[in-house]
Amino acid sequence: MLYDLEKETLPREEIETIQARRLHDLCVRVYANVPFYRKRFDEIGITPSDINSVRDLHLLPFTEKQDLRNHYPYGLFAVPRENIVRLHASSGTTGKATVVGYTARDLNTWAELVARSLGSAGATARDFVHVAYGYGLFTGGLGAHYGAEKLGATVIPASGGSTRRQVVIMRDFGATVLCCTPSYALHLWEAGQEAGIDFRDLPLRTGVFGAEPWTEAMRADIEQKMGIDALNIYGLSEVMGPGVAMECVEAKCGMHIHEDHFLPEIIDPVTGEQLAPGETGELVITTLTKEGLPLLRYRTRDITTLDYTPCRCGRTHARIGRIRGRSDDMLIIRGVNVFPQQIETILLETEGLTPYYQIIVTRENNLDSIEVQVEVSESFFSDEIRKLQRREAGIQKNIKEFLGITAKVRLVEPRSIQRSEGKAQRIVDKRLLS
Ligand code: DLL
Fold it and tell me: Which residue in 49, 288, 292 sits closest to 41, CA to CA?
């Protein structure tokens, strides 16, 4: 469903014309209003008048999470404080939180883009949208909420927590669209099983899942268990929140990034060089219309691809591929680069395993080792020990074969790995503690 037919199907030349104009205006704004950017421009020796086309983008400096931290809390805001009407923050595992601010116009744009995103999931004003992303400083809950309202849908603002009760509400209120993290969707499904509520019997049709990495295997698992279309939504608080990019239900093949508002690039995370379309690298986003906290070439640290080929849904905006991991949380195990998603894929291809797992990384005598703990399904757990051990050895062999690392694999009891209500904690890196 196209929420905004005209904008979502703009011809490429028109997209680029809009981008060029907005990029130039953005440079004028940040040069005038953000001392941090003015200093960067001056250091490099450029002025806003040098930036007149998308091809000039590479001349601009990058912005990193650390820059936001260095100017905590409001130092990179580009409008007077009284024009900021909302704050959000991302907790961050290390260091200070990152604080983001929105003007009234920013909030309106955000709601529009989430409405557009929900539209590409096939949602309309007739839907009941159950929002189980956390409400609060995290952008997930309120972001999805106002977008669903903008679409004209009926919003059920459940937030995270009280999982069993949520399932009952979903059933009683007739939720047709579920917004939450993919791991929480599975947690809800599991709570439903315990309460005798089968998701396949509910009117639920679509899931709008994001905020954490997940895999195609996990999509297949969720779709089969819940009887829905499970779609991928991408975003980050620094750039806006949820709804920066969203898959379409028609093709389910990459997330359309709203190019009239965000200018994407893929770079080599080591050299910072721009890569060609289709190449895998780090996603960098320039916010074209944001007023409160505009960002030039923000390094997301998310590893993905950009695809400009036409999509069969008719939308013309480029698609970013599934996020393969982060350039900064990539695990390096004895010199081998490993993304947790690669391990997840192997686990989910193994019969009898559930998607609940944890990767524990330790270091002894300067040598890294990892242990993968994964829950087995109820029926499997009743098997004899020897069978379980054989299974562990089999998974270990697959990890060795496909990823080239030796991992200890431990099958654990059903329901023994802690459930999350937001983003799942999949990596316990004990190396950081020592
Ligand atoms: O997670 C915003 C959001 C809320 C997106 C709800 C989608 C749905 P942050 O807390 O700032 O914002 O975290 C942003 O989460 O850089 C990615 O690493 C990761 N992430 C977000 N969406 C996806 C996704 C929100 N679909 C960080 N797939 C990003 C993989 C994702 N990773």
Answer: 49
Read off the pLDDT of residues 404-416 as tens digits, 9 standing for 90 and up: 889 999 999 999 9
Q: Is 237 in the pocket of ligand 1 (CB under 6 A)?
A: yes
The atom of ligand 1 lying closest to the CA of 300 is: 16
Answer whether 230's CB lies under 8 Å from 207's CB. Answer: yes
Q: If one looks up domain 1-327 in CATH, what number appears? A: 3.40.50.12780
What burial class does residue 11 get, using C-beta atoms within 10 Å of its C-beta: 0-12 exposed, 13-18 middle, 19+ buried? Answer: exposed
405 lines ligand 1 (CB under 6 A): no
Distance 267 CA to ligand 1 centre (A): 19
Q: Give the pLDDT mean for 240-249.
A: 98
Q: What is the pTM of this model?
A: 0.88
pLDDT at 385: 85
Could you tell me if the CB of 241 is within 6 A of ligand 1? Answer: yes
When the candidates are 3.30.470.30, 3.40.1380.10, 3.30.300.30, 3.40.50.410, the CATH number that belongs to 331-433 is 3.30.300.30
CA distance 333 to 345: 18
